[in-house]
Amino acid sequence: MAQSHCINSPTTLAGKLSLRAHSPSVSQRLLKTFISTKFSTRKFCSMVISASSSPSTVSGGPLKSLLLDNSERKNELMDAIKSSQSNCLSETHLDSAVPGLHSKTRGKVRDIYDGGDYLVLVTTDRQSAFDRVLASIPFKGQVLNETSLWWFNQTQHIIPNAVVSSPDRNVTIAKKCSVFPVEFVVRGYVTGSTDTSLWTVYQKGVRNYCGNALPDGMVKNQKLAANILTPTTKAADHDVPITPEEIIRSGLMSESDYIEASKAALSLFEYGQRIAREHGLILVDTKYEFGKGSDGAVLLIDEVHTPDSSRYWIADSYEDRFQKGLEPENIDKEFLRLWFKDNCNPYEDEVLPEAPEELVSELSWRYIFLYETITKSKFELPSTKVEPIHDRIASNVSHALSSLL
Hints:
By secondary structure, the chain is an alpha+beta fold. It is 33% helix and 25% strand. The chain has helices spanning 41-53, 66-69, 71-83, 140-154, 198-203, 244-249, 255-278, 315-323, 334-343, 357-375, 389-404; strands spanning 3-5, 16-17, 33-34, 57-58, 61-62, 104-106, 110-115, 118-123, 126-129, 132-136, 163-168, 171-175, 178-179, 184-190, 206-209, 212-213, 222-229, 232-235, 238-241, 281-292, 298-301, 310-314, 352-353.
């Protein structure tokens, strides 16, 4: 029997104010790790090859793969990626190093500092999925910050954003605003592996998801007839699906704010899909967050179309792989999710296996690949010979704040 999936009107969810600057600390227990005895190098290599590197074929011959076409660039970066695995930016302490920063909120990926009228968001190399931190990925923080900044700049015609400046490769300084406690998840395909992914709930018989009617007979990775919005909210650190009616009825957002944000989310996604397609990619799904500025304007915040917040596939090989029942070539963190699901219960196990070095290196490369493919600019590797990354960030943030205050 088809099911409807949503939640009852939440009554205890605290609003995330000022880009989380005023919300309670979300510091998480450092994860203990151990080397998984289940891991096999052969198994991992086979998984990566089948998920991202196998050239698809059609009647006209082999399809070009963007990932394979960039193997020379990958080789250029891989030594730096591997040598940086022990030097990731996993934690920052700017509140003790930069005058004017009053407090720190530790998110899954970002360290957020209260700088008076502004917030300082430092994007670290922490990798999250399943509502917890799984690993640290070399250069990831820089890639995410620079990718987001590019998209923020490109989407100002759709909706204004909270960005003030970026004094460092890993840092964005933003306006304070009241954050709506809703994540606007937009989907164009039936896919995913987490508990709230569209494919997971569809397999369970759900045919009305967050107010969207879904037809019977769909298969994994199939394109939806039209993009859909599936909002989620937070409860005990987990994403919880919710309908638009419940969002408004429970007071999480006013009707006018929800309508404005939802329209912006769908427009942003449509624009992102078009830009991605022009660069040989498919933007499969993503999430947006919005807040309200001091002037009452709804603003786009957090991150935009990054490989952390979004799923990307290679466009040229999608149709052929879909017809053959193969997973699309992906350049996001999905294969990391799948590895953890194969080797543990990432939702319930207190101690997680350590992510294999090969997987960490591959993910770092894919994040850089996505940045260079979308922006058509070369990713600049940071140099740690002059000064450590944390010292560089502290110095740049200090100078930036002194010019703002």
